[in-house]
Amino acid sequence: MKQKKKILIVDDDTQFAGYIALLLSNSGFIPRESYGWSHMREVIKEEPIDAIILDMILPDKHGLTVLSELKEWERSKHIPIVVLSSMDNYSYKQEAESHGAVEYLVKGNCSPDEVVAVVTKALLPI
Questions:
Q1: Model-level pTM?
Q2: What pLDDT does residue 126 have?
């Protein structure tokens, strides 16, 4: 039996995070939600996470800083991170990818199916 993958959604918009969690659940993933950096760290400490969907705007830290710290932290440096943000900014996209994001999606510019496809692709072995 194949183990379901756990996806952590880090977004301060609880309604949006819940929507993404529902999409992922319907696609066979186990979604976890977090609404900021400090709570996200606790979730990662408590259970193995297979991928992270990260917003750029969080209440306790900017997403680019979070991304950098996740890639430096031993516990999370190998977790694929997909940025899903309302920040439609090419320089943010470039910076996020240079800090290790596997993809940068803009809320409202991508379909729900695209979000699931990008997460699925991020989980494929290299």
A1: 0.94
A2: 54
